Amino acid sequence: MAGLAALPASNRAVRAEAASPLALRCKADALGLRDKAPATDVWSLGDQPPRFKRGERATVTLANDLTAPVALNWRGVDGAATIEPLLGRAPLAPSASETFRLPLRHAGTFLCDAALLGDGASRPFRALPLIVRESEPIQIDRDEVFLIEGWRVRPDGAAIAPGADATGTEAIYTVNGQLSREISLRGGERVRMRFINALPRQVIALKIEHHDITMMALDGQPAEPFLARNGAFALAPGGRADVFIDATPGVGNTPILMHDGEAAHPIGRLILSDEAPVRSQTLPAASALPSNGLPAHLDLKNALRIDLPFGGDQKDWIRPAAFAATAQPVFRAKASRVVVLSLTNRAQVTSVFHLHGHHFRLLDRLDDGWKPFWLDTIAIDAGQTQRIAFAAEYAGHWLIEAAETNWSAPKLLRWFSVE
Predict the structure, then answer these.
(1) Measured between alpha carbons, how far is 44 from 125 in angstroms, rounded to an integer?
(2) pTM value?
(3) Where do the domains of the chain lie?
(4) CA–CA separation, 96 vs 92, rounded Å?
(5) 304-418 has which fold?
């Protein structure tokens, strides 16, 4: 599972369109998590994923109806320093509201997470997908969002927030706010499925048999298309995978299985319709999604190299509630400089690393290349080291997140500067 400045010319070519409004409200909400039982209280930003087009600038109006401050974490949205939580934008106080611009220079599947300050809060927070469509036409028949969330529920029906003691709680999973999701397919149909792991601390593996599953994008950035081996793929917490599913005629109903590290859970089904196939012949193999303009080459030879241990007893890592930009940055890099981070997990369990403001390449062991996809999040096994590389394209101050894959473990922060 774990294996998984100047703008480039193609980025400069994306001209910002007229601003589009996006109204968000942090509010009390409820989910039906148990049969024949009252709904469970949670916090949310809403149910409908906002959709935009690449190059748009969203004018976001955020209202906080809660009794606690909130800080929005725009996972995968690169280069937006003015909305960087805790560094570019202060938490929004209870009963307050604000308006800001959100530049959407890249197409892809992103995530708005309001739980950055939520460790140990009175309620857990729902995540909200953010969809940015490509400017070019994509050869698909449908586009579906599959948001997977996990809850820890006490015997009295109350859900606890991450960072709290999970002893005696039951793990319950939802898809788009429901306990399961069924998706009807016609033979020969090609569906783009945007899978999102919104579980706060768990790496998951998904498996879909009997259909061709082509991986098209990871963490919001296009990849070189490849078939998922045995229809299975993994996602770190906050990770996203855009896959194309080509429905095979005559296979019947297919479960969507999610493995949480302990057991496989059926969280959805693909139901093959009795209707005639949508086409007489299957579509040819999918070509890559349009590039978002990330650099084709990284100059590893002249890169700034930083060793960054996390997990275990690391004094430099700070909980979000106590974080301040007066802390020493991990590093400072000149704009356009390539940075190589050597990430060592010193915890006794798998831990997750998330980079803000930029996407990175996972380097090969011999430093002679990288995997053919971009990521913003990576899970690293206990005691292991992985090396990542990215071009520090965007000036500003940016967070780095780390957390152990344990519900009760705290989220921890550091930061870096691009100048």
Answers:
(1) 6
(2) 0.94
(3) 9-135, 150-272, 304-418
(4) 6
(5) Immunoglobulin-like (2.60.40)
